[in-house]
Amino acid sequence: MAVTPTDLADPVLDDRVPHLAQVVPSLLATLGVPTFVDTLDLPEATRGCVLLVDGLGWDLLDEYAADAPVLSALHRRPLKVGYPSTTAAGLSAIGTGVPAGEHGMVGYSFEVPGAGVLNALTWCAQPGGEDLRGAAPPERVQPLPTTFSRAEAAGLAVSVVSAARFADTPLTRAVLRGGRYVGVHALGDLAAGALAALAEPNSFCWAYHGDLDMLGHLHGPGSPAWRLQLRQVDRLVESLVDGLPAGALLAVVADHGMVALDESVVDIDDTPELIAGVRALAGEVRARHVYPEKGAAADVLATWRAVLGDRAWVLPREEAIAAGWFGPRVADHVRPRIGEIVAAARGRFGVLRGLAEPVESSLVGQHGSLTRAEQLVPLALASA
Question: Which PANTHER family does UniProt cross-reference here (predicted)?
Fold first, then answer.
């Protein structure tokens, strides 16, 4: 039976809905790369491009379809992005072809044993600490071969087309290594770079646009600024569709959706009981990892459940793993990165850290949790 978004309960853990991690392996399988399997039944192609629009949720695209007529008109179906629904995990799913329990990038920030709490975007100690590239080398934190390196080894011309400032960042080294990095600066050269990559025979490219997510964080998803940026994204998609060479397949996806917080938020820094017995905190506003002091886990779990109530799912690590939050398998080296207690926000709730994380806590739009607004993203296809 085909699954539509209205079939999906909250939280979104429905195994009938394909995972973002299946997209690149499926496309590479259609391009003839051995060891990959097309689990999405994609159209045949001889070259392909995956465009990831950061922050474009399925529900948001539906609600604001008039601002994206080209994208909305493409053949599309929903994907789930897995937990946590955040950029580091989503890019890792694209770059490895597996969910968070296997690639190990289990949050915006998470504890790496022996190194401390790592912010996966800045690769610094969270909050606001030292550079951790020495204590936690990117290739050691995420050691799996990437989809890009495997495609390149199979003979494809592989390109990663993304912002020039990300060219040699630790996150790029961890999950996007392999192929040729094409650094761009705006929508125009993003489109031009992707089309130039597709002009090569037997080519695969991955392209990334991040500004929709940024404006959603700053102004809220669905705000005037966000909607005007969505119109620019639609022009980007139109440029790619119009320029596709013969035999090319374009897949437009996202790494998560987004919600605007309401007044029900809790600030950990103003709620001392949430810190009692806790040696470290990680994650983000809607997806927290809690690392208790030795022997304090039961008390910390009870306190977090009592304070957050029905505004969040609060589970011990093993229950979250058994429920499939991090995918069907969690590797042994990944398990200790997950908080002994995991808290995922419902509705428009969030767990702030106003003093420790002032920038993150000030944002209007947030994501990370298991709600359909964050979990469901489009897989929109165009071919030539």
Answer: BIS(5'-ADENOSYL)-TRIPHOSPHATASE (PTHR10151:SF120), ECTONUCLEOTIDE PYROPHOSPHATASE/PHOSPHODIESTERASE (PTHR10151)
Residue type, 263: E
Measured distance CA(8)–CA(16) in Å, rounded: 10
* More confident of the two residues 8 and 325: 325
Is the sign of the CA dihedral 67, 26, 321, 269 positive or negative? negative
pLDDT digits (tens, 9 = 90+) for 287-315: 999 999 999 999 999 999 999 999 999 99
Cβ-proximal residues to 160 (8 Å cutoff; 6+ apart), any chain? 148, 172, 176, 178, 179, 180, 181, 182, 205, 206, 208
Q: Which domains does the chain have, with CATH numbers?
A: 9-260+371-383 (3.40.720.10), 266-365 (3.30.1360.180)
The predicted model scores a pTM of 0.95
- Report how far residue 239's alpha carbon sits from residue 24's, in angstroms, rounded to the nearest whole number: 22
**Host H or E run for residue 377:** strand 376-383
Beta bridge partners of 119: 109, 124
